[in-house]
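worker-03 picked up job from queue 'complexes'. Input manifest follows; two sequence lines, order preserved.
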Amino acid sequence: MSILAFKDTNVLIQGITGTAARHHTKNMLAYGTRIVAGVRPGAGGQMVEGVPVFDSVAEACANKTVDASILFIPAAAVKEAALDAMYNGIKLLVIVTEHVPLQDAMIIMEHKRRTGTTIIGPNTPGMISPSENTMLGFVPSRYFQSGPIGLVSRSGTLTYEFVARLTSAGMGQSTCIGIGGDRIVGLRFREALRLFEADRQTEAIVMIGEIGGTMEEEAAELVAKGVVSKPVISYVAGHTAPEGTKVGHAGAIVTGSKGSMKSKLAAFEQAGVRFALQPSQVVELLKEAIG
Amino acid sequence: MRIYEYESKQLFRKAGIAVPRSIVVTNPAETVQAAEHLGCSVIIKPQTLIKARGKAGLIFFADSGVEAERAVENLYGRVHEGESIDTLLVEEKVIFDQELYLGITVDYASGRPVFIASARGGVDIEETAKEYPDTIIKVAVDPVSGITEIQANEIIEFVRSSYAGMGSTLQTGLREIVMTIYSIFTRYDCEMLEVNPLVVSNGEFVALDAALAIDGDALFRQADLVRPRGQNKQEFELEQDYSKRGWTFLKLDGDIGILSSGAGITMAIMDLMRASGGRPANFLDTAQMNRKGIYDALHIFKDDPNIKTLLINIFAGLNRCDELALGITDFYREYKLPFPVVVRMAGNREEQGREIMKKINIQTIAGLEEAVWQAIKVTEDRP
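worker-03 finished. Artifact:
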């Protein structure tokens, strides 16, 4: 098994007629993703890579069963497109778009809560379930291989770097998720960890974090509580980064000292999350954890 | 993107929040004139993006034009936290009897705005928050419905509980300010908004200071606020150009340039470099790389006198090594880089990429760690 996306997941592509969307649609289809429809207002009736295009999400959903949607939509229009998908009942969204305005992201996430939607991103290459031949997004699929490692990452480029190392060490993956590099993302580490914990294929979890934010601390808390019992191996990029320039007091009042490397490492240590200081240590730690 | 205090106050004034009378000045003669024109005791504040001016001794008081002249002697051109002081705000000195703090920020974990208020505002608000957390209220706001009357009342009740002198007129005034700054927060795509202090003067609230940080990703719809701040025209245009390309560029004080796409991998390279004694000269996060993109990005480094070595990281997952190698070749056909280049190359069509790089005498390395170490070694070997 895998998590979130499977071979029978019916996928919609919002903004399918754009150059990048066409290209990635082709790659996803070639990998095995079941893409059932595309949306582009004004382009209804066209075909892209053999996929029928509809004028609206509502129309696509009326004609096809849609389980997930991937948004190849410019940043300024992402909020409307995401709301459109959510209120048409689509329960899994992948928002690949970078530079989504903060206020829009907050509104998207509030509607996510109200509608019970799972959102991957924004600012993500998406996710891939190798054993299900399903990719939602645009990760370089040839580096991925089915196996027992669940991987969740805040960084796309680091995911590729790590997965190439895992695969060449003979460690395949159950599902790999780029949760997105933005300050506000939908699916967070803790939710991904819960899903991997419940997944039979997954034996160990690799969590690739970054400096800033509190997601790593939240995940460590789940491990500390025993909610996640599978081994978790973590790497956090930016541990030598100088502290960012402070903007006002308000941020510090809300987050306190959380988000710093010190805070993340302390949380990991307390929870028993194994931590790699260098990328090369991840494979070694995994070998120790699952033999 | 932070904006200046005087700009924030202009937005406040426009929205109906009382701010002190003030004049923006850019030279000593204007400063004197402004003090005389206001005709009262004035406070003179350098307009810098990084605040903490009070603690740095950069806030001045004057009772006349002559005193103002003396106060700003040697002030223009001084540097505060890397920012040259070239603009001052000359402001009516307000007599007040209570300092409040109001702020709105984003709780990134929940994805909601948080409204913060305290009856104990002023420069030590962070210490207050740490030592006396009970004197601060934090209210999470639903971003879809915005701040509600009930929440505003909750904030006012809280402030009143430690500010006994707040009568009904002031309560009404505070309610309006709470609602107004929340609408400023959303209307101007803020990631942070702060009024510290909000004071009571002659029975009315006045915002003595105002700080706004605008979300860089929303500048396409906040075009009125986009202009150079603390940069010359050239730096500003460069920043605009990078932002159009989707690049994030940050100059650092080291001597090894890094060209790599993706924030995560770039940070990992910097970590590896620092752990082995190397010093990164920059942070650069580019969007997806192609032949033209790598050619364009190389221009960032070509005239930088601080760079001793350039490390280019290519991990071609979706793109191709040979295509990116051709981008580097295109650049070399036109320019000569005055420093050695180390290229890490792995991924699609790696062998073909290597061959292309050999033709311009650049050696490639397959491993990430090895490439970082090689860049450090090359840098150390340079005279």
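worker-03 released lock.
Residues 76 and 191 of chain A are 27 Å apart (CA to CA).
The mean pLDDT of chain A is 94.
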